[in-house]
Amino acid sequence: MVEVNLTARALERLKEKGFKTFKLEVVEETYEWTPCCGIGDACVTVPRVKVKGGEGGLEDVKFHVEGVTIYVEPKLLSMVEGGLTIDVNEFGELDFKGLRLNPSFTIRNY
């Protein structure tokens, strides 16, 4: 089973925002086609973690950490290496450590 941890800074940030229950899911951001190295056009798809307030669905895995309930979708759990640590970065945003979030590229030849 995967372990999910919250740092003290992340716990404080979540309490400031009023989150006691939330869901983590993976969304993909796709960037527009752009010329690439004279071989064609490239499109980059980057996975990101999205935080949504409220409870998860039936497939989501439920964790209780420091008085907070976290629902994690199975797709995101499959990207965890070891354990998942939720922290706060220098911009005050939640940061997710222990995830393999690899971008993908699609190349369309000229």
Structure explained in plain terms:
By secondary structure, this protein is mainly β. The chain has a single domain, classed as Sandwich (Hypothetical Protein Aq_1857, Chain: A). It contains two helices and nine strands; from the N terminus they run βαβββββαβββ. It has helices at about 10-15, 75, and strands spanning about 5, 20-30, 35, 40-55, 60-65, 70, 80-90, 95-100, 105-110. Strands 2, 3, 4, 5, 6 and 9 form a six-stranded mixed beta sheet that branches. A three-stranded mixed beta sheet has the order 1-7-8. Strand 5 (about 60-65) and strand 6 form a beta hairpin. The longest helix is centred in the first third of the chain and has 10 residues, at about 10-15. It is elongated and about 55 Å long. The termini are far apart.
Quick tags:
mainly beta; Hypothetical Protein Aq_1857, Chain: A; 2 helices; 110 residues; elongated; 56% strand
Question: Any idea what the shape is?
Answer: elongated
The CATH architecture assignment turns out to be Sandwich
- How is the CATH topology named? Hypothetical Protein Aq_1857, Chain: A
**SSE string, helix = H, strand = E?**
EHEEEEEHEEE
Poorly predicted regions are none
Average predicted local confidence, pLDDT = 89
Distance between the termini: 46 Å
CATH class: Mainly Beta
Number of H- or I-type helical stretches: 2
- Decide which structural class fits the backbone: mainly beta
Major beta-sheet overview? 6 strands, mixed
User: How many domains comprise the coordinates?
Assistant: 1
Helicity, as a percent range: 10-25%
Percent in strands: over 45%
Radius of gyration: 17 Å
> How many beta-strand segments?
9
